[in-house]
Every structure is written in C-alpha cells, then in structure tokens.
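hey so u asked for the seq, here:
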Amino acid sequence: MGKEAEKVRKPRFLCLHGFRTSGEILKKQIHKWPESVVQKLDLVFPDGPYPAQGKSDVEGIFDPPYYEWFQFNKEFTEYTNFDQCLAYIEDFMIKQGPFDGLLGFSQGAILSAGLPGLQANGVALTKVPKIKFLIIIGGAKFKSPSVAEKAYASPIQCPSLHFLGETDFLKPYGLELLESCVDPVVINHPKGHTIPRLDEKGQETTLSFIERIENTLAKTENTDSLLD
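ran it, structure tokens below
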C-alpha cells in the first residue's frame, strides 16, 4: 500500500488530432518528442467522428484514413455537426476515461482549448470529471459567435501549455487564445503549422509542466485518500 501510494500515476490525456488527419497520425507526430517526455504521459488517440469530406493536407505524408471533428464554412463562423462532435467526445471519455487533460493539434487544439469553458457552462462534457490541464499545439479560439460566447465567458482556469510556431498561419489566433488563459506556459518554435520537435529548452519546459501536473494530481489523490 505504502509503495503504491508513493508511486505517481501517469497523467492521462485525451489527444485530439488535426483536421482531416487521424489519431494514428497524431500519435506518430507526438512520438517525435523525446521518450523522456512521452513516457511520462498516458496518451489516448481517438479518431474524429467523421471521415474526411475533402482532400487532406497530409496526403502523401501520412497514410489514410483521415477524419474530421466537425465541419465549418469558409469564414469558420458556422459549424456543422458540432453538437454531435461534443457528444462523441463525451461518450469516448465516459468509456475510456477518466482523463486529466486534453492535448490537441490544429482543429483538435481549438476544440481542446474551448472545451473547459463549455464544460464550466454546462454545454459539454457534463457527465465526466472536470478537465484539469491543456496542451495546445497550433491552437486558436472558436470563431462561431454562439460557441465562443459560452467557451470564453470566463477565463480558462486550468494550467495550459501552448506551442506557437513562428511561421504558423494560426499564430496570431494562438496569441489571442493566450489572453483568455489564466495560467499559460508558452513554447515558441521556428516552424509553421506543425507539431515541432522539442529542443533542449522546449523539453525542459514540457517536463516542468508535466511535473507540475504530477504534483497537482498527487496532492488531489492524497486528499481523496484521506477523505475515504
């Protein structure tokens, strides 16, 4: 019992892939990170609920099949199948969870960063534990006014780690997202809209963020065991 209690369990993250890619592709992208980082997390990689309804930007780089979480108009202001997407994620979290946090890239990052606010407002994820941590790679805010007003009604409270690419077309929107976060940690990298390899500094920052998660979870679980 004593040894078990001392052992820190791995933080469990639900990983949401980019538009018209897949869980398997995101897994390959994340595994470019050093083993010392990846092995500290329990990562789960589902596919989005909808087969890609058009050409994927990763064709020729990663094998199909490709999926998307929901669809949108050219201005990104109107969404199709969005409620179904939220229900799909919640159902997955009920069956495969509990999860401590969300990791997302691109469309998955926009979803991940918006979900804590939607959850706090009772719009999404009402049947699963509160999202406690975020890792956002190439993220932005929701642009649909009806979704955004609920997602960012209050600042995003949970600690978050953000990757911002120097030449990423979403960088200005990623910076905008930071303004809605109470406790963001930022890793800047020289690449574009991609999951970057971690240089030494990026690795240190990521490991320190994970250590903070471990400490928070250990405290929470110690408190829970005292209450039992």
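The longest strand covers residues 160-165. Confidence is low (pLDDT under 50) at residues 1-5.
lmk if thats what u needed
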